[in-house]
Amino acid sequence: MEMPDFWDQEADASLAARDEAAGRLAQLFRQLDSIGNHGAEGYSRFAWSDEEAALRVWFAAQMQRRGFRVEVDAAGNQWAWFGEPSAEHPGVTVGSHMDSVPGGGAFDGPLGVLSAIAAFDVLRENGWTPRCPIGIASFHDEEGARFAVACFGSRVLTGILPADRALARTDADGISVREALDGFAAKLEHVREMQQSGLDCLSDFSEAEIGAAFADSHAPEGQAADLEYLKRSAAHIELHIEQGCMQSDLGAPVAVADAIWPHGRWRVDFEGEPNHAGSTPLDRRHDAMLAFARFVQRVREEAAAAPDARATVGRVEVEPNGVNVIAAHVTCWLDCRAAKAQTVVDIVHRLGAWLAGSDGNGLENSGLKGAGLGGNGLDGVTATLTRESWTEATVFSPELRDALVQAVSAWGDDATADNAKSHGAESGGAQLAAGQSDGVELRGEQFDDAQSDTAHNGDAQSAVEQFREKESANSQAVHSAKDSEPGNLAAAHRTTELAPVIGTAAGHDAGILAESGCAAGMLFVRNETGASHTPREYATLADATQGVYAYAAAIHDCADRVAAGWRPRSVQGER
Ligand SMILES: [Zn+2]
Q1: Sign of CA dihedral 171, 174, 176, 182
Q2: Residues in the 5 Å CB sphere of ion ligand 1
Q3: CA 550 to chain centre
Q4: Which end of the chain is less crowded, N or C, counting CB atoms within 10 A of the terminal residue's CB?
Q5: CATH of domain 263-391
Q6: Which residues pair with 132 in a beta bridge?
């Protein structure tokens, strides 16, 4: 079994030895490591495979050992419950997913499930008794690697992906979801055989534990939506490795998410005229490829000039696609996303205006005249811009987001404070105050209307000051309330760091839940490389441990609030 080298690093090994949460998290990762591990090619853990069978049994065994009851919902997601949740007495749920893309990293998904387990352990070992039910979810097929639908399990459960369409999806070999579900018992049987001849991930469990775990790892009979099931949760919190580098830039080991960015996709068709690559003089060409090339450059310039925006041309088709033929027709696809929908609209509007000038009416826009490439703008090439898809921002529950910021900012870990310093940051707050707030929003009054395009405007400096004043008042109240409680980790792990609030441009199960009207929120753990969906994805054990303490703080605080009747509102969808 090859271990990912980060667990072997000296700093992580010494942290694992002296910090119980770190040691526990490292141990959980080690147990899972052999499942779908292809060494330098990363991890591949797909829907209804042997790997998923092993992961499901492992999850059930871990949770049952801790006194949780494990259930499989109508869509195939696994839920472990501590306590008896109902719509009248809902609990707090946490978790993420354990599947991967082909050749994925160790963290995207498992970090959220394993950190939830470690956080629960930390709380229990400190004498905590939850005042409301606690659920830990392992969502099925979040990456959609096999059936090409991301967040498969949460989409089916919420009804966003209708059951009949889910069952009919097929994989690359033509196997349908229906057939994969029917064949899953054989996968479990295979894992049972492997376990009997010694399977790393299950070697820690007794035969009785293994038997009970297999019983709660089955596939569902079919696929069905069950929004009633989700009423067992008053607040759902997913922890995930950041799929980007905002937190590295900020020196923030843990951040709170406010929204998944809105995004859209456009097709651009350039119509030129095919002709001979040798005999056609430059000034008599209608070259669709040249127009396309100028457009790609323009896309980058527009995105770079806009706040918190990404724009990409990643796919292109050329006709006739001959080495010695001037391109007659080029089709490309533009993907554009930003923190604010209006930013995307503005970028695409400007690109459209630029393209409209490229048919010969807007020489000043094309820039080609000055470049001496012809006296006729884009040489008579016409362009059409067509929108193919648009997805609104998914806004997480603002009340839950604020509760998470408060919980996470009040608790911390000394080791992580050292770690943050080693990243060149005194604190997240100092970074923000210094104006390095690119892509980061501060929680506060300016965000009351979370869906408003103007909600993010305002003076960052004064927002930071207001935020700090409020935060200091909040923290004092929280600290004095907590200091007398059992299960209080604040004394050992408190810092004064503020958790920044950031957006994400990637989809998550928590986003699907939010879309369907559940109060959902997210915590992110810093990704050292900023890379995702590759084995290069990387969180230090120090940061991941900070994530565990943040999760513990969030579970503790939210459970107390929910037990007292708190029901954070979702800002979208109906339940
Ligand atoms: Zn993920």
Answers
A1: negative
A2: 108-109
A3: 17
A4: N
A5: 3.30.70.360
A6: none
Bridge partners (DSSP) of residue 82 are 134
pLDDT in tens, 59-106: 999 999 999 999 999 999 999 999 999 999 999 999 999 999 999 999
Mean pLDDT of 481-500: 45
Q: How far is CA 65 from CA 61, 208, 380, in A?
A: 6, 11, 71
Looking at per-residue confidence, does 357 or 97 come out higher? 97
DSSP single-letter state for residue 255: E
Q: What is the mean pLDDT of residues 549-557?
A: 95
CA–centroid distance, 29 to ligand 1, in Å, is 16
Q: Give the model confidence (pLDDT) of 132-151 as tens digits.
A: 999 999 999 999 999 989 99
Q: Is the pLDDT of residue 17 over 60?
A: yes
pLDDT digits 0-9 by tens, 102-129: 999 999 999 999 999 999 999 999 999 9
Average pLDDT over the chain reads: 82
Listing from the earlier edge strand, what are the strands of the sheet with 382-391?
Answer: 309-319, 329-338, 263-271, 382-391
Q: In terms of C-beta density within 10 A (0-12 exposed, 13-18 middle, 19 or more buried), how is residue 277 classed? A: middle
Q: How far apart are CA 126 and CA 27, in angstroms?
A: 20
Sign of the torsion formed by the C-alpha atoms of 449, 455, 456 and 460: negative
Ligand 1 center to 260 CA (angstroms): 13
Q: Which residue has the tokens 């706040």?
A: 307
How remote is the CA of residue 108 from the centroid of ligand 1, in Å?
Answer: 4
Long-range contacts of 10-14 (CB under 8 A, 24+ apart): 11/540, 11/541, 11/542, 12/540, 12/541, 12/542
Ligand 1 centre distance from Cα of residue 221 (Å): 25
Where in the chain are the domains?
5-43+78-150+227-261+393-420+432-449+461-563, 263-391
Return the bridge partners of 240, or none. Answer: 524
CA 475 to each of CA 416, 457, 545: distance values in angstroms, whole numbers, following the listed order: 19, 26, 22
Q: What class does CATH assign to 5-43+78-150+227-261+393-420+432-449+461-563? A: alpha beta
Considering the entire predicted model, what is its pTM? 0.78
Cβ contact 57:190 at 8 Å: no
